[in-house]
Every structure is written in C-alpha cells, then in structure tokens.
Amino acid sequence: MKKSILLLFFLSPIVTSFAQNTFPEEGNVGIGTLSPNALLSINPFINYEGSLLQMGSQISSNKRLFNFDEGATSPYVSQSIYSTNGSLRFSFQASDINTSLSLFRKNETKIFEVSRSDGGGSYLSMPKIDSKIIIGEDASYLENEGHKLIVRHGSALVEGNIIVNSNIGIGTNSFADEDINYRLSVNGKIRATAVKVYTNWADYVFEKDYKLPSLFEVEKYIHDNGHLKDIPSGKEVEEKGIELGEMNKLLLQKIEELTLYVIELNKEITVLKKNN
Predict the structure, then answer these.
(1) CA 111 – CA 103 distance, rounded (Å)
(2) Exposed, middle or buried by CB within 10 Å (0-12, 13-18, 19+), for 40?
C-alpha cells in the first residue's frame, strides 16, 4: 500500500501537466507525432496550416485524402479529395469570378464538370466519349445502347432551335434506303400545314428541242407497260416509295405534255372548222 501511494505521489505532476491546455506562442503543435509539419498536426488524420486544412491519411508531404483551402487574400475556397494512390478524384473551387465542381477518374482525367464564370457563363461538361445523361431511370437502363441522352416517363421541351449534324429518327433508327441516307426518317404518318421541297422543275417540256412523243407512241407504251413513260409503276412505288419533289416534277411534265397535245388538237379542230 505504501508503494502505491508513493508511485501516485511521483506521477501526479506528470498527469497534471497533461491535463492543462497548451498555448505555444510560436512553432507547431503535434498530437501523436514528434515532428509536426503544420501549425497543428494530429497524426495520422489532421493537418492545419493557416487557411489550409488537411484530413485523412497522408498521401505525400503536401497532400492528404481531404484538403480544404480558404484563400486569405481574395474570396477563394478550394476542396479536393484524393484516392489512396494520390490521384485527384473530386475538386471544388470558388472565387469571386468563378465556381467549378469536377470529378476525375483514377488517372486524374476529368469525367464531369459544372462551372460558372462571370465572363463565360455557366456550362456542364462530360468530356468522355461514353458519357450519357439518363432522366427517369437508373444508370443501368439501356446500359449497352449508344444513346447519349435518355428521357423516360416524360417529355422534353426545348424553347429554341434544335440543330443536328447527323440524322433524326422518329419511331425508327433506320436512315438508309438502298444507297441513299435520309436525314429525317419517320415510321408513321406526318401531319403539317405546309411542306416545301426544293427540286428541278419540268419546264424543259416547253423548250424547242424537247421531243414530244406522239399520242400513238404514248398509247403503245401504256399498252406494253401498264403505266405512263417516266412514271414509276404501282409495284415499284409500293416497294420503294416515291420522292415527293421528283414525283411532282414528273407529274408536271405529263401535265405540260398534255397541254401541248391539247394545243395541237385545238389547232387541228380550228382548221377543220374553217374547211367546213
């Protein structure tokens, strides 16, 4: 019993000194380390140096898993998260003119960024070629599809122009017909108040060197083929469809030919009337 009392007597000053607060006027303070490299070093989790707060396991001499930096000279704040191999995975920066949030792969290539600059406006960037946006479903939806934007269980409203450098499919993803690729492909009916088509026109029928077939030739062609010359047959139309611009030109060609026939017949009738 005497030995225990004597031991407590000698240890009491040491225990008392550890229980007191420590306020050094200069130098660094270390907890769990004898060589603090910042104003406050708590090994192995926290490092504090003025405006820089670092938390988590130390990766290198100047980085830990989590770093928070608050600039002292201008409105500025920066947060960053590193993986255990030292690569940057998350970054947030904000200053008086710019704010950005970025995500990175393990090799520190950027995969996502949201940024706002007073001089350049706001933008969202996903630079990887396999990036996609899915709304209304989780990330597993259409995982093997090549669509970049997927909207489920709703519609999309764009109050402005939509500019596409490739093709648009409505109800279909097929754009080729034989050796022709169509910019707009629709599987279904189209309703519109007007359709404007740019194409060649058939006024060449009225040129002097145009060879107008005789009515006997027209009759023979119809007899042999079952349709007008230059006009596709019903079977061909059912299999291949028609080009609206080209078909309107061909129909006008036949109307102009009919007009020439009528004019010629009118001349003949006029001569017959005079002779009678």
Answers:
(1) 6
(2) middle
Alpha helices, DSSP H only, in 133-243? 215-225, 234-240
CA pair distance 101, 108, nearest whole angstrom: 14
Give residue 218's identity as a one-letter amino acid code: V
Contact 30, 44 (CB under 8 A): no
Residues contacting residue 150 through CB under 8 Å, at least 6 positions apart: 132, 133, 134, 135, 136, 137, 141, 142
Distance CA 39, CA 100 (A): 29
> What does the pLDDT look like over 234-262, one tens digit per residue?
999 998 888 889 999 999 999 999 999 99
Cα separation of the two ends of the chain: 159
| pLDDT class of 42 with cuts at 50, 70, 90 | confident
Between the alpha carbon of residue 114 and those of residues 59, 91, 131, 223, the distances in Å are 27, 11, 14, 71
30 phi/psi in degrees, rounded to 5: -120, 135
CB 108 within 8 A of CB 100: no
**Could you tell me the two tokens for 20?**
């007191």
Tens of pLDDT, residues 162-172: 999 999 999 99
For residues 179 and 166, give the distance between their C-alpha atoms in angstroms, rounded to a whole number: 17
Q: What angle do CA 210, 216, 219 make, to 5 degrees?
A: 105
Give long-range contacts, CB 8 A cutoff, 24+ apart: 241-244.
Answer: 241/177, 244/195, 244/197
For 93, which DSSP code? E
User: How far, in Å, CA of 203 to CA of 254, rounded?
Assistant: 11
Dmax over Cα atoms in the chain, in whole Å? 161
d(CA 31, CA 46): 10
